[in-house]
Amino acid sequence: MDEFNKEIGEKINKYRKSLNMSTTTLSKLSGTSQSSISKIENGRSTPDIKTLVNICKALGLTLYEILPDSISSDFTEDNGYRTQLSTVLNKMSDSEIQTILTLLTTNLIPVLSNLMPMIVAIEELADNERELLKKLFHSISNN
């Protein structure tokens, strides 16, 4: 078995499993047959570039992330948190991601300087917005 194929397959398998995704789901999302996904993950098949790109898109990865380390290390710099963050984001609902984007684009420094204004701000949220915030904090604390 070719080491190049083996390492690509292992990485695809690792990322797919980190997303709790089945080979059937990856197959549907990438437009690749399930048997091809299985062969690639087991290192028994050399995928063409189009197939790799489609698999990467389905997994939310770049090509560099699945290439063997000996090749991709020259192109990427990973601080160890990218994969973890990507996995967490991929598990979140659209509303949770929207809440995070809102929090990131809102200047919270004045609010955080005094806890009371933050409590007031949360109380002023609409019920559905407060529920989204509650779900966000719950999802973060359970990971």
Detailed description of the structure:
Helix content is 70%, strand content 0%. The radius of gyration is 20 Å and the shape is elongated. The chain contains 11 helices and no strands. The chain has helices at 3-18, 23-30, 34-41, 49-59, 63-66, 69-72, 82-91, 94-104, 109-112, 115-123, 127-141. The longest helix is centred in the first third of the chain and has 16 residues, at 3-18.
First and last CA, distance: 37 Å
Radius of gyration: 20 Å
Order of helices and strands: HHHHHHHHHHH
Oligomeric state of the chains present here: single chain
Q: Can you tell me the overall shape?
A: elongated
Which percent range describes the beta-strand content?
Answer: under 5%
Helix percent band: 55-70%
Given helix and strand content, the structural type is mainly alpha
So how many helices? 11
Query: In total, how many beta strands?
Result: 0
Poorly predicted runs: none
Topology summary:
Layout: H1 3-18, H2 23-30, H3 34-41, H4 49-59, H5 63-66, H6 69-72, H7 82-91, H8 94-104, H9 109-112, H10 115-123, H11 127-141
Helix pairs in contact: 2-3, 2-4, 8-11
Question: Key features?
Answer:
70% helix, single chain, 143 residues, mainly alpha, elongated
Summarize the entry for a quick read:
With 143 residues, the chain is mainly alpha-helical. Helix content is 70%, strand content 0%.
